[in-house]
Description:
Layout: H1 2-47, H2 56-68, H3 72-81, H4 102-105, H5 112-124, H6 131-151, E1 169-172, E2 175-178, H7 179-195, H8 200-212, H9 220-223, H10 232-248
Antiparallel strand pairs: 1-2
Amino acid sequence: MFCDIGGRKHQAVQAEKKKKKIWDGIRGLLRLCALAFVLFVGLASISLPGALGWSKEGHMMTCRIAQNLLGPEAANAVENLYRWTSPLHFIDTPDNACTFDYSRDCVKDACVDGAIQNFTSQLLHYRDGTADRRYNLTEALLFLSHFMGDIHQPMHAGFTSDKGGNTVDLRWFRHKSNLHHVWDREIILTALKDFYDNDMVLLQEAIERNFSDGIWFDDVTSWKECDDLLSCPDKYATESINIACKWGYKGVKEGVNPSR
C-alpha cells in the first residue's frame, strides 16, 4: 500500500514537471515573440529610414519564428489551445438540400451559427461580469467578429460530402485551387487586381457605398430584421447556403476553371 502511494506520488510529481515544462515552453514563445519583434523593429529602423515597425506581416513572421523554436510538447500544447474551435467556423449542410436547419445542421451548437449565438449572448451580459470575465469578453468579441465573416462566406455553409467545396479541386486562371479557396480568397484577390489597383481600402469603400447609397441600400433594413438578436445568424446561414447553391456550386465540376 505504502509503495503504491509512493508510486502515485512519483507519477503526480512527474506529471507536474511535464506540465511545467510545457507551459514554460509556451511562456517562452511569448518572450521569443517579443524579442523577435524588437529585433525586427531594430533592423527596420536601421535599413529603412523613417520606419517605425511592422504590421500584421511582421507580427506573423516573428511568432512563426518563435513557434518553430518550441519543443514538441509545448508546440502540441499551443495547437490544442484552440482546437476546440475548429467546427465553429462552418456549417455542414446536406448535399443539394440548399436549406439550413439548426437542429439538423448544428448538433450540440457546434457550428458557426451556434458560435455566433454563444458569443453574442456573452457580450449581451457584459455589464454583469467581473473584471476577469470582462477580460474574457474581449476574446468573445474577437471570435464574434471572425465568425460573422465566416457565416457570410457561402462555402462555409456548403455541402457535407465536399467539406464546403474544400475537396472540389479546380483551376483559377492559371493555378490550381479548390472551390472553397476560390470563394475565400481568389475572387477577392482578382477583384483587387482588376478593379482596385490592389488597394484593399478602395475595395472596402466600394462595398460600403453599395449599402450606403448603392445596389444594397434597400436591403439594409431587412438585414437587421430578426425576431431577436440570436435569430439573426439563422437568417445569415440560410442566405449563405442559398448563394452557394445558386452561384457557388452552379456548373462546377472537378477540374473545371470557373474563372473563364
